[in-house]
Amino acid sequence: MTLFRWTASAALAAIATFASANDPLGKGPEGTEMAVFAGGCFWCTEADFDKVPGVVDTVSGYIGGEATTATYEQVSAGGTEHIEAVAVFYDPDETSYDTLVEAFWPTIDPLTPNAQFCDRGRQYRSALFYANEAQQRTLQASVSALGSSGQFDQPIVTELLPRTAFFPAEDYHQDYYQKNPIRYNFYRSRCGRDARLAELWGEDR
């Protein structure tokens, strides 16, 4: 192993250790592992992942910024560099990180930078987060495969980022699609999310 690779590995391990030790989210349900995905509005990302077999729980929140706290008001103003995201807790006996990554793609627009559908700003950009080198390689391979698949004639702009501290969003954001189905469905429709997804991935995505 070269010095550069050792240094990179050590840095990534330090990031993951810091995130784990200082994560305001804490541990998930017993026996689960966590993955974090950013696909624009976390109401929609949470709703999409709750349908995936093997997913035990989901939590809407904020990740990626340098500030030591994150609230909806701060993040929506665009001043903290945090991204709206969802922590996905899954049973590794029923699904895998790789499977969740593949389930993520058809729920987003991977071609538009710093936005998702009607939501504009870096806080809504799409991103995938890795906690170790194996996950980083998985993400790089997934992006490469999608980019060379011929599915799109534009580059994939979804970011691959190290997983840092995840701040749970306010209670009223959690399970929003279940608590407020009428408002949620109105927002999702007016935002053009499903129409754009059908355009990108097909009706049977």
From TrEMBL:
The keyword Signal applies. It is an enzyme of class 1 (oxidoreductase). Residues 35-185 form the Peptide methionine sulphoxide reductase MsrA domain. Pfam families: PMSR (PF01625). Residues 1-21 form the signal peptide. One of its GO terms (molecular function) is L-methionine:thioredoxin-disulfide S-oxidoreductase activity. It catalyses: [thioredoxin]-disulfide + L-methionine + H2O = L-methionine (S)-S-oxide + [thioredoxin]-dithiol; L-methionyl-[protein] + [thioredoxin]-disulfide + H2O = L-methionyl-(S)-S-oxide-[protein] + [thioredoxin]-dithiol. The active site is at residue 41. It comes from the Bacteria. Has an important function as a repair enzyme for proteins that have been inactivated by oxidation. Catalyzes the reversible oxidation-reduction of methionine sulfoxide in proteins to methionine. This is Peptide methionine sulfoxide reductase MsrA. The lineage of its organism: Bacteria, Pseudomonadati, Pseudomonadota, Gammaproteobacteria, Pseudomonadales.
